Amino acid sequence: MYGLSVPQDVIDAKGNPVRYWGCRAIDERGTLDIVHDRITYNGPEWDKSLTPQAWRELPFIWWLNKVALPELRLCLPNMAREQVAPVCDEGLFCMIARRAGGYVYVGAWEHDTDTSKYDLPQRPDGQWSGSFDPNIGDRVEITFNGLGAGTVVSYFCEHGYRGVRVKLDKQPEWHQKQGNPPYALVFGAEIRPVG
User: Fold this and answer.
1) Which candidate, 27, 78, 156, 181, has a CA 20 to 30 Å from the CA of 122?
2) DSSP string, 91-140
């Protein structure tokens, strides 16, 4: 396994992570060179069936590439050596890193919470607020904020309510400018069938 392990106190408090990404990158005088054969990824079995594009659009992988790794690149030149340092802690997603020798060891993970679970391949238990209950692959239209139509790619549950993750056909410019990935998490009352 490459990268830093999830700290035992985190596992004791939250259980094993849903997804883990780690690497041993080269520290080129304060810049980060990630070598692709020095990466470890562990996730749900369902992740293996995703296309490369769908995998990159998982919220954890998107966060890793768009938020956590850029943050690591910013703080790396000032990061102390031989000490594990927190890079990002976004609640569900966390990253730590350690500079040692000519390398940077990185560990990042995703945890569900007691009340929320995401990117589920099957409908979770929970209350559905809509008039129809879509399947993965169904086309829906999001009825607010001009998000438009898209395809259901997974399920989630937050605080007892079920929802779906929708890959947007055409991500609005304002949505992109806010740094959002090309999908939306929505509840049943916020969608209608397309067609």
Assistant:
1) 181
2) SSEEEEEEEETTEEEEEEEE---SSEEEEESSPPSSB--SSS-PPTT-EE
Question: What CATH code would you report for 8-110?
Answer: 3.30.450.20
pTM of the model: 0.80
Write out pLDDT tens, residues 114-141. 788 888 999 999 999 999 999 999 999 9
Helix (H, G, I), strand (E, B) or coil at 63: helix
Write b or e for each residue in 113-130: b if 16 or more Cβ atoms lie within 10 A of its Cβ, otherwise e: eeeebbbbeeeeebebeb
Helices (H) and strands (E) in the chain, counts: 5, 12
In the chain the first and final C-alpha atoms are separated, in Å, by 47
116-193: CATH number: 2.30.30.750
Domain with CATH 2.30.30.750 in the chain: 116-193
